[in-house]
């Protein structure tokens, strides 16, 4: 139960940043510019995949909680 609470707390810290991204992406989309939000989302997803791979599998061999703490 402690692991689930720490996971929930750490992921809850990202909610304001997700809200900021969604607000910015919506403003770009209303100006008929959907390429920039798509590029930002694509690069964020690629960097997330790479950092997860490096942290959990290659470098630290940490658990799924380990990537949240690092």
Q: What's a concise summary of this model?
A:
It contains 4 helices and no strands. The chain is mainly α and about 70 residues long.
Largest sheet: none
Globally, the shape reads flat
Task: Give the strand content.
Answer: under 5%
The count of DSSP E runs of length 2 or more, i.e. the number of strands, is 0
How many domains would you count in the coordinates?
A: 1
The helix content is over 70%
Low-pLDDT sequence parts:
none
- Average pLDDT metric: 82
What structural class is derived from the secondary structure elements?
mainly alpha
Series of H and E elements: HHHH
Kindly report how far apart the N and C termini lie.
20 Å
Query: What is the gyration radius calculated from CA atoms?
Result: 15 Å
Total of DSSP H or I helical runs spanning 4+ residues: 4
Transmembrane segments: 6-28
InterPro entries: MATE_fam (IPR002528)
Keywords: Membrane, Transmembrane, Transmembrane helix
Would you give an account of this structure?
With 70 residues, the chain is mainly alpha-helical. The chain has one domain. It contains 4 helices and no strands. The longest helix has 25 residues, at 35-59. The radius of gyration is 15 Å and the shape is flat. Keywords: Membrane, Transmembrane, Transmembrane helix. The chain crosses the membrane at residues 6-28. It holds the Pfam family MatE.
